[in-house]
Each structure stands twice: as C-alpha cells, then as structure tokens.
C-alpha cells in the first residue's frame, strides 16, 4: 500500500533517476529512456502508490480532462441512471473525467459557474443553456468539445436529438394500428415532470389528429374520471403510471407505457412500452465530443434516435 502524499521526487529517488525522467515516463513523452529505466520508474510508482497530480498534468497539456454532463430537469430514475452510467463509462474509457451537473438544483447561472471553476475540455448540455455566444466564450476558455441536447439540429455544433414528442406519437400510432380510436392519455403528477409530460402529450395529440383518434387526457390520479370516456386503449406518460393504472382498467382495454423501465421488463403480463434510443447512444455522444477535442472531423454531427415499441402482452 502506498504512502500518502507521494511525489514524483520520491519516485525518482526510488528508481535512481531524475524527476525529469519520471515525468517523461509517466506522461508518455517520447524521450530517450531505455526500456529498463522505464520499467524501473513504473515499478517504483506502483510500489509507492504514486498518482500524478491532475492539475499539474492539465497545465502541462494545456487542458483539463474534465467533461461536464449538464443534466436537464429530468427525474433521475432507473432509465436515465443507466443512460448516464453508460455515458460516464464511455467518456472514462476515452480518458476523460466525467462530472454530472444537475442544472435544476444549481440555479440559472449554476452551469456557467461550474464551467468557470473546472474549465472543462468538453461539455454535454441542453441547447437552451448554451446559446452561440456562450459556446464561443467557453471555447475561448479552453472547452474544445460540445454535444448539445436538443429537439432539432443546432448549426455548427454536434447535437443529440431528443425529440420527446415522438414518444407520444409512436404510442398513438401503435394503438391506432391495432384499431383503437378512443384513447386515454395519463399525464404525470410530479411538477418536475410537467414540461416533459406536456411535450409527450403534444406528440400524442398530433398523432391522434392525424390518425382520426379521439384522445382524452387526465392526470394519473383522475383515472376513473378518464375512463368515463370509454377508451379502448390507454397511453401512460411512463411505465410507472401504466403499471399503477393496470389493475383499474376494464378487461380488454389496451395499455402502453413509456421508457422500457426495469419494472416494465419484469411485469406479468409484460407491459408494452416504448424504448427511446439504443444502447449505442452513449458511445455516439462520447465519440462526437472526443473528435472535437482531438481536432478531428466529427463523423456524426447530428445524432438521431427514434423511439421504438417494445411489444408486450398489454396491447
């Protein structure tokens, strides 16, 4: 087990070399260091438990390794948690230090303050929080890579398209394909989900109008009132609301949720739900950001993902 506060001088003394040689070896600098000396330095560093100072390394490189993922005002449930974990893993694999920043908890200028404090080399954030002038200011401050979260592409900046309205559309399309012309939509009660719920409901309304479906919507705690419209199908804002309503539905009423949550996968009968995007999205986001940091061409400047129905036994 290594000693606390080990320095490069300690490693140099243990290996019998200069501090410059330690720096060359541990920072991968192409210098005239023999394989024997290199191995001696690496062994000394392992034995002493030496970890290079991150700030010093950043100063030498002219940039930090920090990437901020600015999380929109979304609840941190299992689905979002899994997505964030996958993004963090992809960024870590590429050599970055990911930090998750909760926008709604830090106030209107919280993201700007966070960027000023840590000088991130990369930033993943909602487009609404990064107008063009702010992006230019961040670039001048050392941020090299950006991926914006938006409903539509943003000119000149790689964008991950998050069209939540398509979830509502896909749900109604699925029910309409199965002959349902009277559908009840259950909307969330949590104020934190209000904006997201409105966007998904608007998508459902657009599809209903296009397909000739009569759509009624009520908050989830007013299910009994909504059932007075005699729907043949129910679309719930998320799987949690769908599973909560299932036992109260009349026999034969179809039910579809959203998000493909762990609870939906384990439900019996299996809940039909909607999956937003695929498992490759975190890697696509990380690669787009990494290309910019390295000064390379971004292969996928617009990262699009389409919601898909996960067929269960409830529709």
TrEMBL record:
Superkingdom assignment: Bacteria
Residue intervals of the HTH lacI-type domain: 6-61
Keyword annotations from UniProtKB, A to Z: DNA-binding, Transcription, Transcription regulation
Molecular function in Gene Ontology: DNA-binding transcription factor activity; transcription cis-regulatory region binding
Matching SUPFAM superfamilies: lambda repressor-like DNA-binding domains (SSF47413), Periplasmic binding protein-like I (SSF53822)
One Pfam family cited in the UniProt record for this chain: Peripla_BP_3
InterPro entries referenced in this protein's UniProt entry, alphabetically: HTH_LacI (IPR000843), LacI/GalR-like_sensor (IPR046335), Lambda_DNA-bd_dom_sf (IPR010982), Peripla_BP_I (IPR028082)
CDD domains according to UniProt: HTH_LacI
UniProt xrefs under Gene3D superfamilies: 3.40.50.2300, lambda repressor-like DNA-binding domains
Descriptive protein name: LacI family transcriptional regulator
């Amino acid at each position: 087990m290594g000693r606390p506060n080990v320095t490069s001088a300690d490693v140099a003394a243990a290996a019998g070399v200069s501090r410059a040689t330690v720096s060359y070896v541990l920072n991968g600098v192409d210098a005239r260091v023999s394989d024997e000396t290199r191995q001696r330095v690496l062994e000394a560093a392992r034995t002493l438990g030496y970890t290079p100072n991150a700030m010093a390394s950043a100063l030498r490189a002219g940039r930090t390794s920090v990437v901020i993922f600015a999380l929109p005002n979304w609840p941190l449930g299992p689905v979002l948690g899994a997505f964030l974990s996958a993004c963090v893993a992809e960024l870590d694999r590429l050599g970055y230090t990911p930090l998750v920043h909760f926008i709604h908890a830090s106030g209107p200028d919280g993201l700007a303050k966070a960027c000023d404090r840590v000088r991130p080399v990369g930033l993943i954030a909602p487009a609404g929080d990064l107008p063009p002038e702010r992006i230019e200011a961040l670039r001048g401050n050392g941020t090299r890579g950006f991926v914006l979260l938006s409903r539509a592409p943003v000119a000149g900046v790689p964008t991950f398209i998050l069209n939540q309205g398509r979830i509502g559309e896909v749900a109604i399309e699925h029910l309409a394909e199965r002959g349902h012309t009277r559908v009840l939509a259950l909307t969330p009660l949590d104020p934190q989900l209000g904006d997201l719920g409105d966007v998904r409901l608007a998508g459902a309304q657009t599809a209903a109008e296009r397909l000739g479906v009569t759509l009624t919507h009520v908050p989830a705690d007013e299910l009994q009132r909504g059932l007075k419209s005699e729907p043949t199908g129910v679309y719930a804002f998320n799987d949690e609301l769908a599973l909560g309503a299932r036992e109260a539905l009349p026999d034969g009423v179809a039910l579809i949720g959203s998000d493909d949550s762990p609870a939906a996968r384990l439900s019996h009968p299996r809940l039909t739900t909607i999956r937003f995007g695929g498992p490759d999205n975190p890697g696509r986001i990380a690669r787009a950001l990494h290309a910019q940091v390295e000064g390379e061409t971004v292969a996928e400047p617009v990262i699009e993902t389409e919601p898909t129905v996960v067929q269960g036994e409830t529709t």
